[in-house]
Specification:
The structure holds three protein chains of three kinds. Chain A is built from 18 helices and two strands. In chain A, 62% of the residues lie in helices and 1% in strands. By secondary structure, chain A is mostly helical. Chain A has a two-stranded antiparallel sheet. By secondary structure, chain B is an alpha+beta fold. Chain B is built from nine helices and ten strands. Chain B has helices spanning 10-34, 44-78, 96-125, 237-248, 266-272, 300-303, 309-317, 336-339, 342-356; strands at 135-142, 145-151, 157-160, 163-166, 171-177, 182-186, 191-195, 201-205, 211-217, 229-235. In chain B, helix 7 (309-317) crosses helix 9. The longest helix of chain B has 35 residues, at 44-78. Chain B starts with 9 loop residues before the first helix and ends with a helix. Chain C is built from five helices and no strands. Helices cover 68% and strands 0% of the residues of chain C. Classes of the chains: A mainly alpha, B alpha+beta, C mainly alpha. The interface between A and B is large, with 97 and 93 residues. The complex binds heme-A (HEA) (2 copies), dinuclear copper ion (CUA) and copper (II) ion. One heme-A (HEA) sits between chains A (215, 328, 331-332, 374-375, 377, 393, 396-397, 400-401, 404, 433, 436-437, 439-440, 442-443, 448, 452, 457, 460-461, 464-465, 468-469) and B (60, 63, 67, 106, 109-110).
């Protein structure tokens, strides 16, 4: 065997993929022979087995299991030489790596790739909807396009990009040299491209891609063409990735904090990811199960949802939403954390009501499990479930409100540095409030009875996911860009990006409230003529929104390649990730810092969050900057 | 601590901000109440739901205005000015008093909303005083058409694809599905519920306005979801009764099988189906049968001229063979070969050719 | 995922400290591997929870559904009961093996692990036999789907557990584990105990109630 095939890497991975496909054929034919099916070769059966099995062959090939393989077979594990740690060149990013910073970048960049793909699908949706009747794609393709749009943006953009950013900064923030389980961390990342390839690949399936929405309600999904299975199985990989990362975060946060960092000295981003991870670990198995049910029903003729055989169609929705409502907070809480970091630093003021900020996160986690059926107000479920769910749903607005108001109070009397991250943070404050309020509208059962499954929902979705999550993601990417790349981005382009996005975001999604209330259903390729005017306006605005993303892209790429070098602590922040160089050294810290105070003590001269014992005195002074900043002016 | 020069404007700012906030809220509320958000109000339910919406506007606009105003004023007052690059804000950690305020006030607002919503919910679902007088209609969803079943005068079912409702009388729909999940929605009446296979669901409305209103499928049900529309006709009670009488009277060929070999009424087959087959009229426009433009299938008056009976027959039995341009494939049911008797297909085809000849 | 909990033994190389990471601070008394396994088990409990939700809907919520025995389909309570006993005794032998690992009794460790693995394997074997002889298929009715779904899900977990046990056994035979370092026995052990406890729940709800 040539060395390239023995070494972990892409050559070996390709060889293993071929092996995996052969295995799928063999297993499928073998099983069908065993059960006496005719014909022995069934394309769909092979495909379904391959979708599950081939990724594992790929993982083995690319080398994710090598270490565990040695361990499991009882061979001496090679002493950790850290060769799989840290990036040596850009090529390192295409191989498994155990450094949380490399993984963080891999995650973030890949997720943004999926943002572009998902956004491109959105452009296709809007092009089709620009006028009534058929423009470019037929109804089946249309259904496939919005299903893939939503699935990609949810499972392969928002959820993983938060995991990616936290992967980069969280260990730094708590003063840990890496995550608790670096190899598991690498595996978490590699599960994502697999899920992405599946979801996009579904378009090549006979019968088209999965077309039953990102919600994949049974029995539409259990009777759909084979493309549906690409979703069913792809989601399992994305979900496994989420669970593994969440578990990793929880263990890292609980066991690896720097000395002195009590729970109430953790930055709120850490709290936010702690809460999110709890949600993920507890809720994600439910979507896994819901898709197992669909798969079993569809492929093996199980009857979970076949009412003629005693199954229950609504069970799908209960199980699905028991995950997917918490999932919307999985897509929001890390953003809350980012906003807390940015607002404190950019207002030069401590977070107002730190403890309530932490507790409200936990309250949202707990309440998040009690509201799932608000997605089912018109589903025909038992009517008595509705009012209790309406009450719990309304209650969730209270802890969320606490957060919003505390952020406002943080702004008040601060010294607001209105640069790009801050602009996005403020955009988030206002737009998320609007999205949240439309959520409260949806919680009111009589109104939901009218607007459920209309464009009002589409408006809500995008106000919370774009105006909420995506604004925080942009804010976070700009904020940590210097840390992650060692370069500064262009502030001018950043601001232009913000204003374009802010304006055209509203122009795109605000009118959707109107047409929704007026009776336009969602998920339609064609609509009544009376909505034509608004739809055209929306489509035009959405193209401009798409272009604004190009500005972002250009800014990121050009700044990464040739932006001015960033200093260690350009924002004069106190949290630990800013106390090291940009980008940080391979092992984060030469020595673990000791935490001596809260993370946001701005306004106290000389305040510190963490100190390094050997390099005393570190230039970690409140109101001052990192190693390169000028000394603080007297300011009592 | 030295007095922050920036806090001198503090009190005046707050006053300004309150004024701006109040004015903006007032404008916002007025505007929100003025805008005509909904389709026409055509049921008692619609009126109550729109009322809840108004309350929502009144309570929610100030919340949004509050957040926006504070953000804008913070920018105006506290943005970093030249020379303040190294300045920090005051080291304020919180205020229990404020936290209590912004926990209780939203809680009260939400309490009001939820309470009122529960009342409205009860109102729109409650049975009419004289429950016996309530009209009961069974609604069936299937890919991609709606059919309706009334109880005729003699207790025999009346199947039709045309939803006719009397004005001013409470109607209870029992909604079922024959395949996947659909959703029976009449925007003008504001009510909807999913049609779930195996689990009947229901709602009631009292139409209050004569006219025709769209019926829309509001749950993704496959290819033809976007075209799964129908129409409801709200008519004066007397006219409705007259229709009921006429519809329950014979001749009704083959309503559910049996019934001898009476002459096949192709027109009824077209508008209402034979009890098993989906009615053509739920998708196709045909002047002679009086079916409205649903927009799902081609307008038969237009496309059939010049076609032979055999060609039409082929189109009915095997709709996928040739797809009319501009219309989706696989939407027209492919099972008419089974659900219609051969004689019925013949009759239909002849009828179509005859009635579209000009 | 489960591999997360397989402890990565830090081959502490005293003279390899010049370019490694700084030792992380331990901010909790809980062992990371142990915590990882516990969290993973929470996830596992939730996936069983979802299947039990399906069970609940088919058995309780859907009107007119009967539970076994019906339609002439019956569940072999007795065989499954014996199987339960087998699985439970494997927990005991595992515990024995773990105690031996702690006390440095290598023979006990190896014998205990082998017995445990063998008992677990027998359980799975009997389970598959039960499927063959039970007389209904998952596509016959929703009850059958639930039965196969839940026992199959559990069977898959037994399989994962057996893999972990096999790893421990192989390592035990290769001379790993000392009274000081036996996390590698403890942590997969927790998983196996979890699989056993889960079976009691499955057995009770499916066969007995
Ligand atoms: C990031 C994602 C996210 C977030 C955070 C939310 C947050 C909320 N959502 Fe949303 N929701 C979605 C994503 C999200 N949602 C998606 C994707 C769907 C559609 C799924 C599909 O069918 O495809 C959906 C659908 C959806 C429905 C179902 C509608 C239907 O299909 O019929 C409902 C119903 O109750 C709802 C309610 C809420 C509520 C009450 C909140 C609350 O958490 C909001 C709380 C926040 C605020 C209220 C603002 C700040 C608070 C204050 C300033 C305090 C004072 C406020 C008041 C007194 C009002 N959402
Ligand atoms: C994070 C989540 C997220 C994000 C960011 C978006 C972003 C966008 N979404 Fe999406 N959307 C959802 C989540 C999201 N959406 C969900 C969950 C649904 C429900 C699906 C369902 O019903 O199952 C949905 C459904 C949905 C619909 C309703 C479909 C229907 O019901 O029939 C529409 C319609 O307009 C829409 C539009 C858009 C638009 C215009 C954007 C824009 O913001 C996108 C802008 C970004 C880009 C375009 C980036 C890429 C740009 C380029 C690659 C450049 C090329 C472009 C040009 C040259 C113009 N979305
Ligand atoms: Cu029927 Cu949508
Ligand atoms: Cu929700």
């Amino acid at each position: 065997m040539p060395a390239a095939v023995r070494q972990p890497g892409w050559t070996r991975a390709s060889a293993f993929v071929v092996l995996g496909i052969a295995f799928s054929y063999a297993l499928s034919i073998g099983l069908r022979a065993l059960f006496g099916y005719d014909p022995l070769l069934d394309g769909e059966a092979v495909l379904q087995i391959a979708l599950i099995a081939v990724p594992f062959f790929f993982f083995v090939g690319i080398g994710l299991f090598d270490y565990w393989g040695y361990y499991m077979s009882g061979k001496a594990t090679r002493p950790e030489d850290h060769s799989g740690h840290g990036a040596k060149s850009w090529k390192s990013y295409f191989y498994p790596n155990t450094d949380h910073k490399v993984i963080g970048v891999q995650y973030t960049v890949l997720s943004f790739f999926f943002l572009l793909v998902g956004g491109l699908f959105a452009m296709l949706i809007r092009a089709e909807l620009a006028q009534p009747g058929r423009q470019f794609i037929d109804a089946n393709t249309y259904n496939g396009v919005f299903s893939v749009h939503a699935s990609i943006l949810i499972f392969l953009f928002v959820i993983p990009v938060f995991a990616g950013m936290a992967n980069y900064v969280l260990p730094l923030m708590i003063g840990a040299p890496d995550m608790a389980f670096p190899r598991l961390n690498a595996l978490s990342f590699w599960l994502l491209p697999i899920a992405g390839v599946m979801m996009l690949g579904s378009f090549f399936a006979p019968g088209g891609s999965f077309a039953s929405g990102w919600t994949a309600y049974a029995p539409l999904s259990t009777s759909a063409p084979i493309g549906q299975v690409f979703f069913t199985i792809g989601v399992q990989f994305a979900g496994a990735s989420s669970i593994a990362t969440a578990l990793n975060f929880l263990v890292t946060i609980i066991t690896m904090r720097a000395p002195g960092m009590s729970f109430f000295r953790m930055p709120l981003l850490v709290w936010a990811n702690f809460s999110t991870s709890l949600l993920v670990v507890i809720a994600t198995p439910f979507i896994a199960a819901s898709q197992f049910f669909v798969l079993l029903d569809r492929a093996l003729g199980f009857n979970f949802f076949d009412n003629g055989q005693g199954g229950d169609v609504l069970m799908y929705q209960h199980v699905f939403w028991f995950y997917s409502h918490p999932a919307v907070y999985i897509m929001m809480l890390p953003g809350f954390g980012i906003i807390s970091e940015i607002l404190a630093v950019k207002s030069r003021k401590p977070i107002f009501g730190y403890r309530m900020m932490a507790f409200s996160l936990l309250a949202i986690v707990a309440l998040g499990f009690t509201v799932w059926a608000h997605h089912m107000f018109v589903s025909g479920m038992q009517p008595w479930i509705r009012v209790p769910m309406m009450i719990t749903t309304a209650i969730i607005a209270v802890p969320t409100g606490i957060k919003i108001f505390s952020w406002l109070a943080t702004l008040w009397r601060g010294v607001l540095h209105l640069d790009t991250p801050m602009l996005f943070a403020m955009g988030f404050l206002t737009m998320f409030t609007l999205g949240g309020i439309s959520g409260v509208v949806l919680a009111m059962i009589p109104i939901t009875i009218h607007v459920s499954d209309t464009y009002f929902i589409v408006a809500h979705i995008h106000y919370v996911l774009f105006g909420g999550s995506l604004f925080t993601i942009f804010a976070g990417v700009y904020y940590w860009f210097p840390k992650m790349t060692g370069r500064m981005y262009s502030e001018r382009l950043g601001k232009l990006h913000f204003w374009m996005t802010f304006i055209f975001f509203n122009a795109t999604f605000a009118p959707m409230h109107l047409i929704g209330l007026d009776g336009m259903p969602r998920r339609v390729a064609d609509y009544a003529d009376k909505y034509a005017g608004w739809n055209l306006a929306i489509s035009l605005a959405s193209f401009a929104l798409g272009l604004s993303t190009m500005i972002f892209l250009y800014n990121m790429v050009s700044s990464w390649r040739g932006g001015p070098r960033a200093v260690g602590n350009p924002w004069r922040a106190l949290t630990l990730e800013w106390q090291v160089s940009s980008p940080p050294p391979v092992f984060n810290f030469d020595e673990i810092p000791t935490v001596v105070g809260g993370p946001y003590e701005y306004g106290v001269p000389g305040a510190r969050h963490g100190v390094f014992a050997s390099s005393e005195p570190p230039a970690v002074t409140a109101g001052s900057s990192g190693p390169t900043g000028p000394t603080p002016t007297a300011h009592e | 601590m030295e007095v922050d020069p920036r806090s001198r404007t503090h009190r005046r700012t707050i006053v300004q901000m309150v004024v701006v906030g109040l004015v903006a809220s007032a404008i916002g509320i007025a505007w929100g109440l003025y805008i005509d958000w909904f389709p026409v109000q055509a049921s008692t339910q619609a009126k109550k739901i729109d009322g809840l919406w108004d309350l929502m506007i009144i309570l929610a606009v100030p919340v949004f205005v509050l957040v926006v105003t504070v953000v804008l004023f913070a920018v105006k007052e506290f943005r970093m000015r030249p020379g303040e690059e190294l300045l920090d804000g005051p080291n304020i950690h919180g205020s229990t008093k404020l936290e209590i305020v912004w926990t209780t006030i939203p809680a009260l607002i939400l309490f009001t909303l939820v309470g009122y919503a529960a009342v409205v919910l009860h109102d729109i679902e409650k049975a009419p005083a004289n429950a016996a007088d309530e009209l009961k209609v069974d609604v069936f969803g299937e890919q991609f058409a709606w059919t309706f079943r009334y109880k005729g005068a003699d207790g025999k079912p009346i199947n039709t694809t045309r939803l006719r409702l009397p004005e001013g009388r409470s109607v209870k729909f029992t909604v079922r599905s024959k395949d996947v999940i659909h959703d029976f929605w009449i925007p003008a009446m504001r009510m909807k519920v999913d049609a779930v296979p195996g689990i009947p669901s229901s709602y009631r409305i009292t139409p209050t306005r004569l006219g025709t209103y769209p019926v829309v499928c509001a749950e993704l049900c496959g290819l033809g979801h976007s075209v799964m529309r129908s129409t409801v006709y709200v008519m004066p009670p007397a006219k409705f009764q007259a229709w009921m009488k006429q519809a329950s009277a014979p001749p009704k060929a083959a309503a559910g099988g049996g019934g001898g070999q009476a002459a096949i009424d192709a027109k009824t087959l077209f508008t209402d189906g034979n009890g098993e087959s989906t009615a053509c009229g739920s998708c196709h426009q045909l002047a002679d049968a009086g079916t409205p433009s649903g927009g799902i299938g081609p307008d038969l008056d237009k496309v059939l001229s010049g076609m032979s009976v055999a060609m039409v027959k082929e189109s009915i039995v095997n709709p996928g063979a040739e797809i009319t341009k501009g219309f989706p494939a696989n939407v027209m049911p492919a099972n008419f070969g089974q659900t219609l008797k051969p004689a019925e297909i013949d009759a239909l085809a002849e009828y179509l050719v005859k009635s579209t000849k000009k | 995922m489960e591999a997360a909990a397989i402890p990565a033994p830090h081959t502490h190389d005293p003279d390899d400290h010049h370019h490694g990471p700084p030792e992380a601070n331990r901010s909790s008394r809980v062992d990371p591997q142990m915590l990882g396994m516990l969290l993973f088990i929470i996830s596992e409990i939730m996936i069983f929870g979802a299947f039990f939700t399906a069970y609940f809907f088919v058995r309780v919520v859907t009107e007119g559904n009967q539970w076994f025995p019906f339609n002439g389909d019956e569940l072999p309570k007795l065989v499954a009961g014996v199987n339960t006993a087998i699985l439970l005794s494997s927990s005991l032998t595992l515990h024995w093996a773990q105690t031996c690992a702690k006390n440095g009794n290598r023979f006990g460790l190896k014998a205990g692990m082998l017995t445990t693995f063998f008992l677990g394997f027998t359980f799975l074997f009997i389970q598959v036999n039960e499927y063959i002889h039970i007389g209904f298929a998952p596509h016959d009715h929703a009850q059958g789907s639930i039965f196969y779904g839940l026992t199959g899900l559990h069977g898959a977990h037994v399989f994962i557990g057996l893999t972990l046990l096999a790893v421990v056994t192989v390592r035990a035979f290769r001379g790993h584990f000392t009274p000081e370092h036996h996390d590698g026995v403890e942590i997969p052990g927790i998983y196996w105990h979890f699989v056993d406890v889960m079976w009691i729940v499955v057995y009770t709800t499916i066969y007995i109630l």
